[in-house]
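Example record for the data management plan.
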Amino acid sequence: MGKYIGKRLLQAVIILLGVSVIVFALVNFIPGDPYSGMYSPDIPTEEIEAKLDELGANDPIPIQYVKWLGRALTGDLGYSIWYKEPVISVILGRLGNTALLACSSILVSTLLGITVGIYSARHRKGLVDNVSTVMAFTALSIPSFFFGMILIKIFGVDLQILPISGMVTVGKESITGAARALDIARHMVLPTVVLGLMNAATMLRYTRSSMVDIQGMDFIRTARAKGLPERKVIYKHALKNALSQIITVLSLQIPGLLSGSLLTETVFLWPGVGRLNFEAVNHRDYPLIMGIVLILASFTLIANLIADISYAAIDPRVLQNDGKG
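Corresponding structural encoding:
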């Protein structure tokens, strides 16, 4: 297992290095001067050029990349042009908000998707299966921003029972303790429903499809022929073999949720990484853009690494096949 994990870690490092090269090159090849908004037009051009030389902005692109990578390895991702703060501080200030929303959405999508998926597979062509199939395809077809606006109209405007934007109520930023936690929870309901249901639809379809295929296999028929309780057949034998599909879906969903789900955060004005990335692009904040992409790429690789380790833990044949490769 140690050799397997080491190999996957090495692959992750190489991929992350490649991502950093591509992102740095693309951002720096964008036309225009990102520093133009930082200095007054009254400052002489000579002073501006001298300062840019001091910052290394006029160095060749490869030299700029090496310097940036060296700083990034020490945790220094640069200085935000727009926010006038270190990039790492700006990102960490939003990352917790996105992680909170992502965790709640993953909990909703996983519990709902797996539960309904298993039930639908056990009762194919039944009422729950037919209804869940229609709802899943509907959820996958509707854009998240449109779904969010519908929820805002119903629960925020018509019924006025849930807040429609932000993370805390305006004017109540100073509250603490249980009152603050309750206020944040109320603001989380609508964006969590949007993200949770959209991802639950994918989880449901994969879980149902995998469980239907497994239930037709010989070892499941053998388990039933031995007289094992149906619950044990489903949850101990069938579900265990379907976990690889579920882990695959989760490993794909987690990075997307941690990236902030740009549209959802924008619709609900949730102060997370997705909205921060949108603001960074609008303000041509190149250091912040590169920092966000690098951190999100790291989360994606970590999620894939966890998925690979989980595959090996569930099915030892993965290690055998990897050794042969």
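Summary line stored alongside the record: Residues 93-283 form a domain with the MetI-like fold fold (CATH 1.10.3720.10).
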